[in-house]
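Summary of Year 1 activities. Much of the first year was spent building the evaluation harness for sequence design. The harness presents a backbone, in tokenized form, and records the residue chosen at every position. We chose the following record to illustrate the format because it has been used consistently in internal testing since the harness was completed.
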């Protein structure tokens, strides 16, 4: 048994947080996910890689309840997200936060208000308490001085930092990251990835990421799932997937993106 602190698993039994069982999704004639099953344990960082159109974003959007599966079940923390009635789905959905490619901030609200809005409306938190939490998070993402600014007054990197603070303000158990740097100018990418790497290392939040930033994936992931045509064709540690992939499709994909 290893005593290396970087490879020793956390104490206690692992707790499964996300479970997809036989999930299928079609858009018209296009079968995007085909009997997909996978699990993510609490506190783990899992990255989904694979060619464009292989269904990765659809998986995150289902967890956010922005899409629904045609068949199969999705559970979070042992509770059904699909199939489930609307009331249960709204409850389970509170455990999930997402950062989108295009930030999706509320343009007519200040930075502070962007971060406080959901805790007030969805969690019923008082404005004062939500503002206190939001200021702590804006400090964490390096934007304490910008709380009164509008999103349009910020750079893309700053807007994405606000979006990260906004997602964390709900204290989700699972944070979904969907290509969060692909809309940024190249010089702003590293700062956002460093922030997310810090959050991955210093918190116990579970992360499910879709990214083409393979160095970031290698740095933060406990597990990498390689998708092709709506199925996981290979899964393993980043060391294994990036250095010694089993599957020809994985080798081709990594050859094209690395
Ligand atoms: P990835 O994230 O791996 O690039 P996506 O999950 O975004 O893949 O998309 C998978 C497939 O589903 C693509 O062929 C895409 O065009 C299609 N798709 C995604 N969303 C919709 C939608 N709302 N309506 C129709 N087709 C969609």
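For this record, the design step produced the sequence shown next.
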């Amino acid at each position: 048994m290893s005593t290396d602190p970087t490879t020793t698993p956390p104490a206690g039994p692992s707790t499964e947080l996300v479970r997809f069982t036989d999930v299928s999704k079609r858009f018209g004639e296009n079968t995007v996910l085909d009997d997909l099953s996978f699990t993510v344990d609490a506190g783990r960082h899992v990255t989904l890689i694979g060619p464009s159109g292989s269904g990765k974003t659809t998986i995150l959007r289902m967890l956010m309840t922005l899409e629904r599966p045609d068949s199969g079940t999705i559970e979070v923390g042992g509770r059904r997200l699909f199939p489930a009635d609307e009331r249960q789905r709204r409850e389970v959905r509170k455990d999930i936060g997402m950062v989108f490619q295009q930030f999706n901030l509320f343009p007519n609200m200040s930075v502070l208000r962007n971060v406080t809005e959901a805790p007030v409306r969805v969690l019923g938190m008082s404005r004062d308490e939500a503002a206190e939490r939001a200021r702590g998070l804006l400090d964490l993402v390096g934007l304490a001085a910008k709380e009164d600014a509008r999103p349009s007054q910020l750079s893309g990197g700053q807007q994405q930092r606000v979006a990260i603070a906004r997602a964390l303000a709900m204290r989700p158990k699972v944070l979904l990251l969907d290509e969060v740097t692909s809309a940024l100018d190249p010089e702003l990418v590293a700062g956002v990835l460093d922030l997310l790497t810090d959050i991955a290392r210093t918190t116990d939040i579970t992360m499910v990421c879709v990214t083409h930033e393979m160095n970031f994936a290698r740095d933060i992931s406990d597990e990498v799932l390689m998708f092709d045509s709506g199925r996981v064709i290979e899964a393993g540690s980043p060391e294994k997937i990036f250095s010694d992939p089993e599957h020809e499709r994985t080798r081709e994909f990594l050859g094209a993106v690395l």
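The CA atoms of residues 1 and 7 lie 10 Å apart. Quantitative recovery figures across the full test set are reported in Table 2.
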